[in-house]
Amino acid sequence: MNFRTLLCCAVAGVIAAGSAMAQQAQPIVIKFSHVVSVDTPKGKAAEMFKKLAEERTKGRVKVDVFPNSQLYKDKEEMEALQLGAVQMLAPSLAKFGPLGVKEFEVFDLPYIFPTKEVLRSVTEGPVGQGLLKKLETKGILGLAYWDNGFKIMSANKPIHKPEDLKGQKMRIQSSKVLDAEMRALQALPQSMAFSEVYQALQTGVVDGTENPPSNMFTQKMHEVQKHATVTNHGYLGYAVIVNKKFWEGLPTDIRAVLEGAMNESTRFANAIALQENEDALAAMKASGKTEFYTPTADEVAAWRKALLPVHKDMESRVGKETIEAVYKEAAKLGFKN
């Protein structure tokens, strides 16, 4: 082999080594897509995870957060995750029923969580963790539960009593339980993507909806709803999920750091959710654009009486065992359904 050939081989080797080093230096990119505003509890928690993940991996991981349905709408994002087009989502718990894990719809049942303490005992205990395990057959890993809050009803007419929603077109997430909830109130459920709700309310395609105050406020729904009632009838929360193949393919040390960042982000998310909703409710009241009503004890009892039969009706879908497991958690803390 002559000198020129040896030199060419050496140069080629240096180029190849440099290329390999450059590839190794490229950060691992996590695309984190969600459908709500940056200034909601979920939006802020996603930004917190990004900050912690990038700092603690010293740049080995880059988290690109896409809020407000920038990449995918409600019905599109789950398939995108399974296909690997995005790596991380935080969909509402109602999304897992259409995916085939119907037990998650227990979270949609009206008045099933009497307090935040009961809710936390479910999400952090064997019931909630067992539900996350069921996602693995779908190519998904569940990392955490993030709170938003308890929902209120809104419409363009006063809604003090359950019967006030009769005949009203009410937007819901795609959920058989939420569909049954609205039908129990003699309302007309309309399933649609979250990103489309404001315009639907503005144009009268739907008459009202249900949301935690933070979602209602950040999407400016109070500008197109004349009335709202603080029913606190249902819970809206999220599961932070990742593509299973992607997550399990991460270097072990990186995955451990990201799990720690997720744990801290979860504590942050759940700590701010209550305050964010209180602040949003106060801001909407101050705006004067929506009239808010707080039901009396007797009126709350009437709402519960109208909606609790949905639990029994949904046993065949959600699973009687799952519903009773939540009841048992509530009973441990002194509550009965």
UniProtKB/TrEMBL annotation:
CDD domains linked: PBP2_TRAP_SBP_like_1
InterPro entries: DctP_fam (IPR018389), TRAP_DctP (IPR004682), TRAP_DctP_sf (IPR038404)
This protein's GO CC annotations: outer membrane-bounded periplasmic space
Keyword terms of this UniProt record: Signal, Transport
Biological process (GO), any one: transmembrane transport
Family: Belongs to the bacterial solute-binding protein 7 family.
NCBIfam families according to UniProt: dctP, TRAP_S1
Protein's name according to its UniProt entry: C4-dicarboxylate ABC transporter
Organism name: Magnetospirillum moscoviense
